[in-house]
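If you are new to this repository, start here. Below is one unmodified record pulled from the training split, so you can see the exact layout before writing a loader.
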Amino acid sequence: MVSVRDVIKEIETLAPPALAEEWDNSGLQTGDRKAEAQKILVALTPLPEVLDEAEEKNADFLLFHHPLIFKPIKSVDESSYPGDLLTRAIKNGITIYAAHTSYDAAPDGVSVALADVLELRGPLSVASPRGFLKKLVVFVPEENVGDVADALSGAGAGVIGDYTHCTFRIPGTGTFLPGDAANPHLGKRGNLEKVAEIRLETVVPSHLADEAIRAATEAHPYEEMAHDIYPVEGKPEGCGYGRIGNFSERLSPDELREHVSEKLGFEARLVADTGMDIRRVAVLGGSGGSFILEVAAIGAEAYITGDLDYHDGLLAESLGLTAIDAGHAATELPSLAPMVERLAKLVDIPVEVSRVRR
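And here is the target side for that same chain:
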């Protein structure tokens, strides 16, 4: 049996809750974590037609990008949104989970999919980094350092730029006195032991810290693993909003608008036209007006996102930035198929994309 809890665990490896904004409401919206999940339907927005499709296809787990419950609700009115859909889901035993800003900021999240469908060339860099780093220190017998270091790397620790397996190692002496109930790997109960150990240091994204500690613990020979963990300055690699990359050839602003419209299947709108040909482009799925200053500061020549208004266009133009409003839904829909593809490899039940395109 695959439980709702099992599905949520795997979703959260792809869209870590620690990357979600405080104002957001990513996570379980309604459902029983202990219940069985039989089929997952992935959609952008909680809409009546998505629930129609779920009932038609016997899908009992709905994974949305947009939360059904976004702001605190004081009552559940079954005649209007969101109470109508919330009540319907509960009555029909349908679990609803939202991966919103947690998926926006994920290393392979919404904007990565948008960059891919628009054929932006990498390496892609993050437009607005998110997340936090921690320093993890583990004390390991010399002969076991390699195994523990490999386990940490496998859990996502030790990444700095294009380098992996990054650690620092300092030799020293560890001491411990096993108690009467202990089962020591080295030494005897009641004897103070001194062991040649290595202080093994590495960095780890905050959202992967628990997994890194678990992996190190499993690889460590001691019954009790001594470790320290503390925050450090910096952002984890690949986490954040938007991506910036290059096209293979320069395009005029109108050629870029036509390219975006063709690739997304929705009509895009040119809201700021610098009149200059474009190669270096930033993209951000969803509502991206608040990131114009950041995008201009990192050297983009054009910016593709959704929900740009009149004043956003004026700001972009003043900064020498061509801006295209490709639509909120249109810029997020490309991220659903990659989520389905990755999630299907992690859970042993069917996963498919909804036919609803909004």
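Two things worth knowing about this chain: The CA atoms of residues 228 and 267 lie 53 Å apart. Residues 4-102+335-353 form a domain with the Udp-n-acetylmuramoylalanyl-d-glutamate--2,6- Diaminopimelate Ligase; Chain: A, domain 1 fold (CATH 3.40.1390.30).
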